[in-house]
Every structure is written in C-alpha cells, then in structure tokens.
Design a protein that fits this description.
The chain is built from 1 helix and 2 strands; from the N terminus they run αββ. It is an alpha+beta fold. It is globular and about 40 Å long.
Length: 63
C-alpha cells in the first residue's frame, strides 16, 4: 500500500532528521507553534533567514 504519511508521521521523520543536522552543525532549535506541513514540492524555493534575537525564519517563494 502506498499511503501518504500522516501529519504525525511527517513530524516524527522531520524530528529525526533535524536531530542529525543538530549533531552535524551544532545548532539546536526550540520551536513552539509555527509548523508548516505541505508537500515537498511546495518548499522548492524555501530559504531561511535570520531575524532579530536569533530567530530563524522561513521564506517560501515570494512570501
């Protein structure tokens, strides 16, 4: 069966990969809310930028 992963499964998979990136780069995130879940294609133009006070913010396309 080719079922699409649930939101919870997507978040779990992301958390596991994020832990690997944290260990690799030495940067940990503390996130409350603000989680965006969409298809991988929706993030094709994703970039992150640093805001004030250490914020890491996403920019998707022209948003």
């Amino acid at each position: 069966m080719n079922e699409n992963p649930t939101t919870e499964q997507q978040l779990e998979a992301f958390a596991k990969e994020l832990a690997e990136l944290t260990r690799k780069h030495g940067v940990a995130l503390c996130v409350t809310g603000g989680v965006i879940i969409d298809s991988p294609e929706a993030f094709a133009e994703l970039e992150y930028f640093t805001g004030n006070d250490g914020d890491l913010l996403p920019r998707i396309g022209n948003e």
